[in-house]
Amino acid sequence: MNETLAFILEWVIKGAVLIAILLTGFAYTTYFERRFLARIQIRVGPNRAGPFGLLQPVADGIKLIFKEEVEPAEAYRFAFLLAPVMTMVPAVVIMAVIPWGDKVVMFGREIALAVTDLNVGVLYLLSIASISVYGIVLAGWSSNNKYAMMGGIRSTAQMISYELALGLSFVPPILLAGSLSMSEIIQGQQSSAWYIVYAPLAAIVCFIALLAEVNRAPFDMVEAEQELVAGYVTEYSGMKFALFFMGEYIKMAAVSAIFATMFLGGFDGPGVDTYAWLGPIYLFLKIFGLLGLMIWIRATLPRLRYDRLMAFGWKVLIPIALLNVFITAALIVGLGI
Amino acid sequence: MLQDYLNDYWPIAILLLLTTLLGIVAIGLGYLFGPRRSNKRKNAPYESGMSPIGPGTRQLPVKFYIVAVLFILFDIEVVFLLPWAVIFKKFVDEGLGNFVLIEMIIFLGILLVGYVYAWKKGAFEWD
Question: pTM score > 0.95 for this model?
Answer without folding.
Answer: no
